[in-house]
Structure formats: structure tokens, C-alpha cells
Amino acid sequence: MEFQGARETNIEEEKEAAGMEEIIYVAVGNETAKNKSNLTWAIDNSEGDKICIVLVHQPAQMIPVLGTKFHAATVDDELVRAYREKEKAKTEKILDVYHRICLQRGVHAEKLCVEMDSIEKGIVQMISEKRVRKFVMGAAADKHYSTKMVDLRSRKAIFVCQHASVTCHIRFICKGNLIHTREPRMDVQALLSGFERPLSTQSSSTSDMEEEEGEEERISRTSSCRSASTSSYFGGSEASSGLDDEVSSIITEETSNHSPPPSLPCSRMGLGMINFLINSTKLLHRLAIQNHKQPE
Predict the structure, then answer these.
(1) pLDDT string in tens for the chain (296-residue length)
(2) Cα–Cα distance, 262 to 250 (Å, whole number)
(3) H or E element that contains 113
(4) Do the beta carbons of residue 169 and residue 136 sit within 8 Å?
């Protein structure tokens, strides 16, 4: 028997799974004639997935002024902004050309313009931010293609292969042929960081508990030490229980006539012992005098 709640949950999961469509991101360049083959390969192997055309636009660093080019840092901001807007408009027109190729083949496609000084770094950043799972780009210029080609020759392709998110499935194309595939892997580092957070919280709680227990034990030891010192100082009569009554009375009298010593950095047990020795010395002196007077 199937419960109503479980059936509704399954229906929602099926709807979510049906609504999730894979998107193949395809990197293209400014020259449509040289990059058309990569896009057509992605369309032919899309298997019904959507296509997103990616073009990294590099903002111009040299700005033409009166027939001479100057670095953007030395040119007025308004001139730099105006020139870069014109260049970006050209990039949008290039994307439109690629988009028409997809429409002619009956494929729904999206356009994405990424601004970055470095093309390869822009691709890596885009893959990370968009959480791209499927990506297609060129392995080298078409002129470098040969039937024996198995390695990446493009500096940009090598950089993307080495630095892009490991969860992304990347296929590198040259002249309409698949040259290299970088299979996706599980992001172990992300999983470890997810485990480290609760572990670090637990370890910090454990260390806090250990510190509290250590503090309580230290306070307990200090209290015991103080209690022992106090009993040693005020307990002179117990230490001299073997002496006669006169010795006990004199020690008690001397102790009662002296106020407790002030708190010093040294141990109270040591101060009590010093007072006991002083009182004992006085007692022995008195006994010596009495013994000297008895024969007379």
C-alpha cells in the first residue's frame, strides 16, 4: 500500500527530474569561420541538450585617439568607455552569427558574453560560477589538426583542462573531430571541507570542555593547597601534641598573640613553619633558664 504523502513526493521528484535539462556550453572565438566547426560538432552531439554559446570578450587596453593608440590608463575615462562599448557591440553581433547557425539546425541556443582580460581565465571562472557540467572548446587551431593528433596544443585549452572545476565534463575539438576528453570527477576537496566543518566544531567544543575541566581541577588543587596551608599554620598544637602541657600552652599563647601573616607570594605553609620554629626557640630558651635556676 502506498501512502499519499510518499506518492506526492515521488511526483514532485519526477517533475524536477523532467524539468532539469542539461546545457552544453560551447566556447567560440571572434572569427566565426575558424570556430564554426566546434559549434556544429557540439550541436550534432548534443543529444537534445540545450546549447549555450560562450564568447569571452577582452576589453581593449589600447584606445585609438586621433589616429594613434594610447593605453587606457592614460586616456580620458569617457573615451575609454565609449570605445569599449563599440567593441562590445561588435562581440554581440558575432554571437548573433553563431546563434543563427543553431537556429538553422533547429537547436535552441543561448548567448553568454564573458568579460575578462584573459580568455582562459574567463572560461575557468565561468565554469565555476555557472556550475557548468558539460563544456566544449577547441583543442587547437584547425590548421594544426592531423589524424594522429591526440594531445592538446592550444595554450588556452591546456590551462582550462588543468584549472577548470573537476566536476565539469570537457571535450576538446579540432576541425570537427574529438581530440581529448576530460572526464568529470567527484570534488573530493569540497566533500572534505564539508566534513571538516562539523569535525572542527566538535573538536573546538571538546577542547573547550577540556579547558573548563582543567580550570576546575586547577581551582580545586589551589583550594586544597590553601586549606592545607591554613591548617598547617593554625594547627601548631596538633604538631606538638607530644610535648608537655606547658609547651602547648606557651605555643598557643604565642600563636594567639600574633595576627596571621600577610599574604605573600610564597607558600603559607612555609610561614607557619617559620613561626613554629620561632616559638619553639623561645620555649627552649625559657626552659633553659628554669633548669638553670632549679639547682640554686
Answers:
(1) 444 444 444 444 444 444 456 899 999 999 988 889 999 999 999 888 899 999 999 998 998 988 888 998 988 899 999 999 999 999 999 999 999 999 999 898 999 999 999 999 999 999 999 999 999 999 998 888 888 898 899 999 999 999 999 999 999 999 999 999 999 988 666 556 555 555 555 555 555 666 666 666 666 665 554 444 444 444 444 444 444 555 455 455 544 554 554 444 444 445 667 777 777 777 777 777 776 665 55
(2) 23
(3) strand 109-115
(4) no
Integer Cα distance of 33 and 141 in angstroms: 11
**HSE (CB half, 13 Å, CA atoms) of 243?**
17
d(CA 146, CA 174): 9
The three cell numbers locating residue 53: 554559446
Q: How far apart are CA 101 and CA 31, in angstroms?
A: 14
Pair 113, 91: CB distance under 8 Å? yes
**Predicted model pTM:** 0.58
Close Cβ partners of 275 (under 8 Å, ≥ 6 residues apart): 233, 236, 255, 258, 261
Identity of the residue numbered 170: I
Burial of 95 by CB count in 10 Å (0-12 exposed, 13-18 middle, 19+ buried)?
A: buried
Q: How far is CA 11 from CA 1, 5, 17, 19, in A?
A: 16, 10, 10, 12
> 272: helix, coil or strand?
helix
Which position has the grid cell 546563434?
99
Residue with cell 600563636: 255
Distance, CA of 261 to CA of 271 (rounded, Å): 8
